[in-house]
């Protein structure tokens, strides 16, 4: 349906909500006509007057809420085919969703309304309305045809002759014992012969069109000789030369000895039925042409009295949804059932059975796995109807919502990630402000104490030492912030140079030796290469920064024991490790310690100095050098941090 022909009715007691809905609709359907109503009563009257293609109905309204309005609309035989989208202000409102289904609403959407979701739903609802209109017109036509045939069948015995004439239905027989044949007046009339006309068998056969004679001779002979009944639709040529489609039925009559003595049957002019069938066939062709460019599946789904399923009517969209053709499922549901995702199949059948039992709208989302294609998410919506023979048919559509489903899932993940990052950054900034204030207060405090008049030389040296320590601590924090800022913005550069790795390890050992001795911790070195082979090409400053950070952490979180600094050559890489006997890291925290703004355990590390950025900076540097970094730790027994870099 073109945008210019779409009519949308929005019912909401809030004028602002109606304005918002009209704006959303205007953006995607600029030529659509939008009607609004501020209460259920006027909305129902407007729906009856304008016959919209879809109704947007708010749940919470005074006097008559959305559920009551929906029930009244669906109870009206004229308005019941208009698809309804119920709108609620609460996401995940399971009770309202159940009530919406019970009221007959086609779909349920929550505020704030996602524009793309609303657009997709409106388009789908318009398709449902078109399908409902098609179904209604077909039902009217079929009901008229059934009514006509039923009326003819229910004529009394006294009016049988008139009924036979009206239905162009007559009887005939061939009596072999009496060597005669009989045609009723209606059979004679169909052949355009006068009443009482009685032909021979050969004369009767000669009325059949040449291309049909072999068939009628075969089935009549099989019936006369072997008792095999027949029911055929063939063409005859009447006395005036007109071709007429007839249905001829024959069965054998036997005497008490089992001998075939007669063949008798019925004969009917079915030209009108053939015309009707051709009309239906042409309409089916038109339906397929109209739906051939729609990727969604429009269908009539049937549950037979024996409990089996089939799809008598299906658009070409079935190829996109289930990977089969309309012909594949005319009398067989297996081409569909075998591609429904195994974990979803049970719930789909359960929902179908529930809809069949209660004649409620069927709505379901499930996965489909067509061989050679990725898994698809399918949305299915249909309206059930019970037929006189006990069959249940559903009229509806299936749509591929994979992109929408995946987009929603990615949005949820992104939202959760953003919320987690915000929380971590907030915690990080709180810790950082503490880390900055502590040394700054120390510097300011001891600087003020240096101004006291009777301060001793020893006190000056002590205060200056505290100021120096606080300044270095602040400098380290600022350097970390600068480094992480460069990493975040992608401005870190790699400078490859030639340097002696063993000499660098010795320098690091010398740098931390005094601090380790003061804490009664022993530092041991294990060098994997002799001095003559330890000259490598890499970024000396980055490697040095990583090693210093790992050793500094080892000293920070160790109170005694040994810190082991080691490296060895493994194929084309150098593998470094810094092992300590400190507090260790809990298993569930080992995967996050390299994340920015995270520390292994805030409840522990807040007792130690540091910004918490060192490991994330180290990870970034190692990855820039095409290496890897990881940790091996047992809580309470120490940790071993390892990393690799290419060997030259």
Summary of the model, kept short:
This protein has 648 residues and is α+β, with helices and mostly antiparallel strands. It is built from 19 helices and 22 strands. The chain has 5 domains: 3-131, 3-Layer(aba) Sandwich (Rossmann fold), CATH 3.40.50; 157-269, Beta-Lactamase; 276-400, PAS domain (Beta-Lactamase), CATH 3.30.450.20; 408-489, Helix Hairpins (Orthogonal Bundle), CATH 1.10.287.130; 497-646, Heat Shock Protein 90 (2-Layer Sandwich), CATH 3.30.565.
Largest sheet: 5 strands, parallel
C-alpha termini separation: 67 Å
| Strand order in the largest sheet | 2-1-3-4-5
Q: CATH H level of the largest domain: which superfamily?
A: Histidine kinase-like ATPase, C-terminal domain
Q: What is the strand content?
A: 15-25%
- Low-confidence parts: 599-611
| CATH level 1 name of the largest domain | Alpha Beta
- Provide the number of structural domains: 5
What would you say this structure looks like, in words?
With 648 residues, this protein is an alpha+beta fold. It folds into five domains: 3-131, 3-Layer(aba) Sandwich (Rossmann fold), CATH 3.40.50.2300; 157-269, 2-Layer Sandwich (Beta-Lactamase); 276-400, Beta-Lactamase; 408-489, Helix Hairpins (Orthogonal Bundle); 497-646, 2-Layer Sandwich (Heat Shock Protein 90), CATH 3.30.565.10. Helices cover 46% and strands 23% of the residues. It contains 19 helices and 22 strands. The strands form five sheets. A five-stranded parallel beta sheet has the order 2-1-3-4-5, with helices on both faces. A five-stranded antiparallel beta sheet has the order 7-6-10-9-8, with helices on both faces. A five-stranded antiparallel beta sheet has the order 12-11-15-14-13, with helices on both faces. It is elongated.
């Amino acid at each position: 349906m073109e945008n210019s022909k779409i009519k949308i009715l929005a019912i909401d007691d809030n004028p602002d909500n109606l304005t918002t809905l009209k704006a959303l609709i205007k953006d995607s359907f600029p030529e659509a006509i939008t009607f609004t109503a501020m209460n259920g009563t006027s909305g129902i009257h407007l729906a009856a007057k304008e016959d919209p293609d879809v109704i947007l109905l708010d749940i919470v309204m005074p006097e008559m809420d959305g559920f009551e309005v929906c029930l009244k609309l669906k109870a009206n035989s004229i308005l019941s085919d208009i698809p309804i989208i119920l709108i609620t202000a609460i996401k995940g409102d399971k009770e309202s969703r159940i009530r919406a289904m019970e009221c007959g609403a086609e779909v349920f959407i929550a505020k704030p309304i996602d524009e793309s979701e609303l657009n997709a739903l409106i388009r789908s609802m318009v398709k449902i309305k078109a399908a409902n209109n098609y179904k209604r017109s077909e039902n009217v036509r079929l009901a008229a045809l059934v009514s006509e045939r039923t009326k003819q069948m229910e004529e009394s015995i006294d009016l049988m002759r008139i009924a036979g004439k009206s239905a162009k239905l007559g009887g005939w027989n061939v009596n072999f014992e009496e060597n005669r044949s009989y045609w009723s007046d209606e059979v004679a009339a169909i052949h355009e012969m006068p009443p009482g006309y009685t032909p021979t068998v050969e004369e009767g056969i000669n009325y059949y069109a040449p291309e049909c004679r072999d068939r009628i001779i075969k089935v009549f002979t099989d019936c006369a000789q072997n008792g095999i009944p027949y029911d055929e639709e063939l063409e005859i040529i009447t006395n005036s030369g007109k071709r007429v489609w007839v249905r001829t039925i024959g069965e054998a009559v036997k005497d008490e000895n089992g001998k075939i003595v007669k063949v008798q049957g019925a004969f009917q002019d079915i030209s009108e039925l053939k015309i009707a069938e051709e009309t239906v066939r042409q309409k089916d062709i038109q339906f397929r042409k109209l739906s051939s460019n729609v990727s969604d599946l429009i269908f009539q789904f049937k549950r037979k009295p024996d409990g089996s399923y089939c799809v008598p009517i299906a658009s070409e969209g079935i190829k996109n949804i289930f990977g089969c053709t309309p012909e594949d499922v005319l009398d067989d549901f297996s081409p569909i059932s075998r591609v429904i995702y195994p974990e979803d199949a049970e719930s789909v059948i359960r929902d179908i059975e529930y809809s069949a039992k209660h004649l409620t709208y069927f709505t379901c989302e499930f996965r489909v796995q067509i061989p050679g294609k990725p898994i698809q998410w399918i949305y299915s919506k249909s309206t059930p109807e019970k037929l006189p023979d006990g069959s249940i048919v559903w009229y509806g559509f299936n749509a591929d919502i994979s992109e929408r489903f995946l987009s929603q899932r990615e949005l949820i993940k992104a939202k959760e990630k953003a919320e987690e990052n915000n929380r971590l950054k907030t915690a990080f900034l709180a810790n950082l402000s503490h880390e900055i204030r502590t040394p700054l207060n120390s510097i300011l405090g001891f600087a003020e104490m240096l101004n006291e008049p009777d301060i001793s030389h020893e006190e000056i040296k002590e205060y200056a030492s505290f100021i120096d320590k606080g300044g270095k601590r602040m400098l380290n924090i600022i350097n970390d912030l600068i480094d992480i800022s460069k990493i975040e913005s992608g401005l870190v550069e790699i400078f490859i140079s030639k340097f002696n790795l063993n000499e660098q390890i010795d320098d690091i050992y010398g740098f931390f030796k005094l601090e380790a001795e003061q804490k009664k911790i022993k530092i041991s070195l294990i060098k994997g290469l002799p001095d003559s082979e330890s000259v490598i090409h890499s970024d000396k400053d980055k490697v040095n920064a990583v090693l210093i950070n790992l050793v500094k952490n080892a000293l920070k979180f160790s109170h005694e024991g040994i810190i082991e600094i080691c490296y060895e050559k493994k194929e084309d890489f150098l593998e470094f490790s810094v092992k300590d006997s400190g507090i260790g890291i809990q298993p569930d925290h080992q995967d996050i310690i390299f994340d920015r703004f995270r520390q292994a355990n805030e409840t522990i590390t807040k007792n130690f100095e540091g910004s918490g950025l060192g490991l994330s900076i180290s990870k970034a540097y190692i990855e820039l050098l095409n290496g890897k970094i990881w940790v091996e730790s047992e809580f309470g027994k120490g940790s071993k941090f390892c990393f690799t870099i290419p060997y030259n």
